[in-house]
Amino acid sequence: AGFADNTLGLPKLCPKENIPVISREVLFTYLSHHHTPDRIVVAGVGVEHEALVEQVQKYFVEKPPVWKENAELVLDQGLEPDASLAQYTGGVVTTTKDLSNICPGSPVPNLAHFVLGLESCSHQDPDFIAFCVLNMMMGGGGSFSAGGPGKGMYTRLYTNVLNRYHWMFNATAYNHAYGDSGLFCIHASADPSQLGEVVNVIVREFAAMAGRIGQMELDRAKTQLQSMLLMNLEARPVMFEDLGRQVLACGERKTADYYITEISKIKEEDIHRVVERMLRSRATVAALGDLHRLPALE
């Protein structure tokens, strides 16, 4: 919905009608365009550097890809991958669907889902850290959380939404940052009969972001973000993935200390600046389930 028919808005899963036309040549053509040295990062954690370089030399340098040895494996050599920048459009996508049989016999009730989003920024944008702090400040989660008592209970979506509206099953903020754009959104779910109220509550929370932010609230969000960063990096697999992702996206790896310092610099005016920037964009709306109580959104 947010990037209608372009780049980030294209289907994440292969459309059903495309499956019959996927051939061996189509797959090798895709590999030849996207699995190229300038798009690959080989990362390692807990391995000797020389040993890793030796294996990379053996399997990535000395051995040519099969499509180089047999040109018939790929289609038109003149084809180029789409390198266009993401164009944020905003928009509305709704899908009416009976979800009552999704979790039979489980405590999860029949829910209608609503997502409201606005354009944020890329992960290389100077405002990226401020958006991350805003995301942590909004927080949210489910009406029941298995993560332990007190986890995120002072975030806005808990105090202003989940604690006030017993019918709200879930309300969670997300900040999706990509290479050239981003989307800040709130996903909420409730009984279909409450969908009109869900929309009003979430719109009100977006508007409230432009209001006053208490110093304690801001400090708590910054501390939670720093804590989450450090706890995640305690796990080797996460450290490994972080290393590869940063080099692939930025060309270098920035340490946790760098991000801890940048997070600590965020002030109330920084949050207000990114909120004003976000509120100037056209809204993105997605809804799924029994939508008979969904108000007109165009």
Automatic annotation (TrEMBL):
The name this protein goes by in its record: Mitochondrial processing peptidase subunit alpha
Biological processes per GO annotation: protein processing involved in protein targeting to mitochondrion
Record domain Peptidase M16 C-terminal: where: 22-225
Family the entry assigns: Belongs to the peptidase M16 family.
Record GO terms (molecular function): metal ion binding
Any Pfam family the entry gives: Peptidase_M16_C
Coiled-coil ranges (or none): none
Gene Ontology CC terms: mitochondrion
Species of provenance: Alectorobius mimon
Function summary: Substrate recognition and binding subunit of the essential mitochondrial processing protease (MPP), which cleaves the mitochondrial sequence off newly imported precursors proteins.
